[in-house]
Every structure is written in structure tokens, then in C-alpha cells.
Amino acid sequence: MTKDEWKKELESKTIEDLGEQDFDVNDWGSCQYSGALAFFNTWQKMAKDLQIGEIASLLNIELKFSKIKQLHEVRLNMINDIVEQIRVCIPRQDVESIKYHTDTLGMLCEAGNTEELFHAFRKSAWDLWTVAPYVAKHFIEGLEISGVPGAPGIGPEWNHVAQSQNYQTGLYCALLVQYGFVKDSNCFADFDT
User: Which has the closest alpha carbon to 121: 189, 50, 23, 182?
Assistant: First the structure.
């Protein structure tokens, strides 16, 4: 589809309609991530026809960044982040947190690709709302995103708050795929909520 055709599609359909994702258990697991998956699917469909800047423009999203990093540099920065967390725990003699961070550190050291980074964080009980921006901002240095609307939420009030981040989470995941850092989007599945 052309840019103009996509513009008409966006005027007549919701992200959930375009992304073919209702609020339900889905390919990413929890229904709580339905909006993230819908946004991701919508972006991926548009990416078949358009460049990143064109998609962002049509969705009224502004993207800025300064540098793209390589996996070895990203992994080293993440390892340093976790080591710093361990340093914070040592004076408090917080043995459980030290073990938790040490286990995460071991998995990050073994990660050979971005999918394995996501696996390490999933095993460490992180949620996708936290992992996706954390990983994306490590690969895409200085990443600033504005204009992403809040996603609709379903259920109790706290669910609405968490789900409001879904479109932005889906965008982080889409950027990781589109820039080639993630080859298998199944790495976004089965995170805790």
C-alpha cells in the first residue's frame, strides 16, 4: 500500500483492528499485552510498504536517537547495570537480591543474541513493559519517543494504567525488529504482567 492508502486505513480503523488483535490471550501470552501486540502487528504491516520515518509520521509519532549500538556493547552495558545493582545490595547484606542479580548477570553473560537477552529478563521475572524500552534504549542510544497515544485498557483501574503503555511497548519491539536486532519476535512472548 502507498503512504496515502495507509493514511486512509489509519483514519478508518483502530490499532487493534489493523493489528488484528482483540483483548485476549494471544501470541505474546497474557491478554494484558494485547495492545502491545496490536501496535507491533500494525507497525510490521506498515513496514512492508514504508520506511520507519514514514510510519512514524503517519502515526504522529516523533522518533529521535543519536546512535545505533552493536550487541557486544549493549550486553556489556547491561552487565554493568546489573553489577551496579549488586554493589548497591552488598552493604545492605541483601542476600536474596544479590542472588537474583547474580543469576540475571550469568544469563546476560551467556546471551549470544537479542532474543537471549529477552529470555534472560523473562526468566528473571521482568515484564515486557520494562524490558522492551530497556533493551531498545540500549541498542538505540538517545532514543526519544513522543506522540504515542495511550493504549486502551480493560479491567480494574491498575490494569488500565499498565495497559496504557502497550502501544509504546509495541513500538519498542517493532523498532528492535525493524532495525534488525531481533530476528524472532517470539522473544516478546510469555512475560509476566
Answer: 189
